[in-house]
Every structure is written in C-alpha cells, then in structure tokens.
Write a structure and sequence with these properties.
Length: 383
C-alpha cells in the first residue's frame, strides 16, 4: 500500500495529517546551562519494577513488577494491596514475566486494561482485565484473551502493549529468541514475532484489523503487522505533536538502535536480521528497502537500549521535544531531538548511575520517570 493510500485510510478514521519531520510544537534547541537530576520516587518495597503509567489524574500511579503484580502508588506512597496479581500465571525468569500494562482510553467508564505477559509455556499473551467498582483492585477472574503467540525460546519477548493516539492497541513482539534469529522471524511476514502489531480491540472478537494496516489482503502477510524487521523491541512510545513512533530495539552483539518514523504510515522494515542497527549483521548485505535507525550506538560497556519518551511536560523548561533514553548496563540518561530524519543535539546528562535501567514511565502531566532495579526516580530540572 502506498503512503498516500495509508494516509487516506487514516484520514477516514479522523486522524489528521500524515506525519511530520520535526519535533512538533515547542521542540527546540536546549537552553544553555540546563541540567537534569533524579528525585527518588519509590526506592523500596518494589520487586523488579519494569513499567509505570498513570491513566487518570487521580493521584494514582501504576507500577508493573516483572514477577506478576501491578502495584499502586497513591500520592507517592506504595500501597500494600496489589491492583492485580498474576504471579501464579506467568514465568518471571530472565526476560520473561509481566512486562507492561495499557489502560483503555475510556478506562474511566469501561474499566478495561490490557496486560502483556509470558505464560509458563513461554507463550506471549495479551489479555484484557476489568477493574472492580473498588478502583484500588481489579478482578482477576475478568480475564479475556486478546492474543496468544507461541514463543519458542526464553529471550527476545518484546514487552510493551500501548494504545496509540489513534485509539488502536499496539504491541511490539521480539523475534522468538536465540542468537541471530535462528527461526528467521524478523523477515517472515507470515509470523507475528519480530513485528510491531496494530489491532482494534473496540471491534471484532477478540479484535478487528484496523483500516490503514499495510498488509490487509496481501497473501503471505499477516494483517495485524504494522512494521517488520525487529529483534527485541523492549520499549516504544508515541509522540503525538510530531506524529512520530519511537522504537528502541535491542541489538545482538554490536549495535543498539532507536528508530523514529511516522505512526500514520505503516509498512516499515527495520532490517533485522539482515541489519543490526545501521550496519550489516553479516557483511556484505543489501540494505535496499530497510529503514535505517535515527540513532544507533556500539555496545562498548553498554548492552541493551532502554527506550523512553519525548518530553512533553511543563516542569523542565527547554526540554520539550527531546527524546530521553538509557541502557540497561550503562545506567546513564541521554537524549536527542529528531529533526528531518536525524538525531540532533545528542546529550549525555551526566546523572549518577542508579543501576540497571529497565524502563521509563510517564505520568498524567507528561513528566518522565526512570525505572531501575534500585527503584523509581523522577526526572527533574537541576538547580
């Protein structure tokens, strides 16, 4: 499907525009002297936190623990009772576990939320649950299976499910594990593994294929697929002002990469396992047709990119439009600004090492948090 046809299909869904090459309103050059610092938010009581989100402006932040629980932080205090406990239904070892949660855009009225986890047999599962009339707890018996994908090995599970600005549910799946993509899922368009998926959970049973997905009606290509060629896309995020989708894809043994592209145009192929980052995985290779990352970096002391968010909060003056990210082994905080397909103003913020950085989170006000094995820290403007 051509770009113009995809844009027309999305226009029919009342999504305006067709992508931007800039950072969106308010994005610009970093002001001289701007510094960032980390404020401890929750640094005790959590076990292996891997995700954070705030669906409502009600003082509650939800934190996902890899071992299977969703915890509530109310007005900065960790609550003892879990919102949901799936610890008896998952395999939490290694890269597996309860990996993320996405609250429905109409959560305030329908109380639906969606979790991404790995079952004891290794399958990736996306299930819908419903909160009870008591907003502090969900009903574990309300589970509805949305998607199950067989996953043959323990690593490369992907891990994020999120609602996009279009109201569709997006999920990033790894290539199935093993070194070098032995099952060749990265370039197998008939496999959901190694893909970014986009589905409509508001229609169909259990979902429908959204208009505008690039492979609808194409033989040998799953219609759920929005983009292909991913190895282990642990974290991704949307930036609505710029209409960009950022995907941080964990590398094999040489390069870590961050991709940025319009979320209104499907069909991108990010190249794995022909490419690893901007380079051939096995040289020489034909790079024709593959989208190059906006940024990649070598694994010199680093090991696994941890994708974050474009800052759109109000507390840090001058940071708006800049994408924040880290590395599980590096423990640093860095940023860049996307401009016409290039990562500009690349910045290392020089924060203290807080341990293995597993994820980022964003609250209702657009402020960003770093999540590490040591706990959760809020990113603030320095003195």
């Amino acid at each position: 499907m051509t770009k113009s046809l995809v844009c027309l299909a999305l226009f029919a869904l009342a999504v305006s525009g067709c992508g931007s090459d800039e950072t969106g309103p308010g994005g610009g050059t970093l002001p001289p002297g701007l510094t960032l610092e980390l404020e401890p938010f929750v640094t005790s009581g959590l076990t292996a936190p891997v995700f954070l989100t705030q669906p409502l402006n009600d003082g509650r932040i939800f934190v996902v623990e890899q071992a299977g629980r969703i915890r509530v932080v109310r007005n900065r205090a960790l609550q003892a009772t879990p919102f949901l406990d799936l610890s008896g239904r998952i395999d939490p070892d290694g890269e597996r576990g309860l990996l993320s949660v996405a609250f429905h855009p109409q959560y305030a009225t329908n109380r639906y939320f969606y979790v991404y986890f790995t079952a004891p047999n290794g399958d990736i599962r996306i299930e819908r649950f419903t909160a009870t009339s008591n907003a502090e707890v969900a009903d574990p018996a309300s589970s509805k299976l949305i998607l199950a994908v067989a996953h043959p090995r323990a690593n490369h599970n992907g891990g994020l499910v999120a609602f996009g600005p279009d109201g569709m549910l997006w999920a990033a799946l790894g290539d199935g594990g093993g070194g070098g993509d032995p099952d060749r899922n990265g370039q197998n368009f008939n496999a959901l593994l190694g893909s970014m998926l986009r589905i409509d959970v508001n229609n169909g049973e259990p979902y429908a294929i959204p208009a505008g997905n690039p492979f609808i009606g194409v033989a040998g290509r799953r219609p759920e697929i929005w983009a292909k060629g991913l190895r282990n896309p642990w974290r991704f995020s949307f930036d609505q002002p710029s209409q960009l989708l950022y995907i941080a894809d964990v590398g094999q043994e040489a390069r870590e990469e961050i991709n940025a592209d319009s979320y209104l145009v499907g069909g991108a192929n990010y190249g794995w396992n022909v490419m690893e980052g901007s380079r051939c995985y096995i040289a020489p290779c034909d790079q024709t047709g593959y989208m190059m990352p906006v940024l990649d970096y070598p694994q010199n002391g680093d090991c696994s990119v941890t994708g974050g968010y474009v800052y759109r909060g109000a507390a840090i003056q001058g940071l708006e439009g800049h994408y924040l990210y880290s590395d599980y082994c590096g423990g640093w905080l860095k940023s860049f600004r996307y401009s016409t397909g290039v990562a500009v103003e690349r910045k290392d913020w020089g924060i203290p090492d807080i341990g293995n950085v597993t994820s980022f989170g964003v609250d209702y006000a657009g402020e960003i948090y770093m999540i590490a094995t040591s706990g959760i820290h809020k990113i603030l403007q320095g003195d």
